[in-house]
Amino acid sequence: MSTIKQMFEYYGVRFTASRERDKERGEVSATTIVMAAALVALAISVGAVISSRVREKANSLNLG
After folding, report:
1. Given a cut of 70, is residue 5 above it in pLDDT?
2. What are the domain boundaries of the chain?
3. What is the pLDDT of residue 26?
4. Distance between CA 43 and CA 50 in Å, rounded?
5. Is the torsion defined by CA of 33, 38, 44, 46 positive or negative?
6. Cα separation of 3 and 8, whole Å?
7. Are residues 51 and 44 in contact, defined by beta-carbon separation less than 8 angstroms?
8. Is the C-alpha dihedral spanning 43, 46, 50, 51 positive or negative?
9. Count helices and strands in the chain by DSSP H and E runs
10. CB-based contact 20:13 (threshold 8 Å)
């Protein structure tokens, strides 16, 4: 078994065990909240960048 495959298997088992433990406690860890907030912020910023670029492109079109 390759080293990379062993690492993925190990982290998969650890992730599953952590998820099961959190499910039993009924808690949301601080790490989960921070990661969710970071993903929301990233999605908002990407949306703003795409929106501004589309708006700039639309305003630069010569329709007359």
Report:
1. yes
2. 3-60
3. 61
4. 11
5. negative
6. 9
7. no
8. positive
9. 2, 0
10. no
Type of residue found at 64: G
Please indicate, yes or no, whether the overall pTM of this predicted structure exceeds 0.85. no
For residue 4, give both structure tokens: 């990379």
Please state the length of the chain: 64
Residue with tokens 């190990």: 10
- Phi/psi for 2 (5° steps) reads -75, 160
> What is the percent of the chain with per-residue pLDDT over 90, rounded to a whole number?
39
Q: Which two tokens stand for residue 46?
A: 């990407």
CA 8, 13, 19, 21 torsion-angle sign: negative
The whole-angstrom separation of Cα 45 and Cα 16 is 31
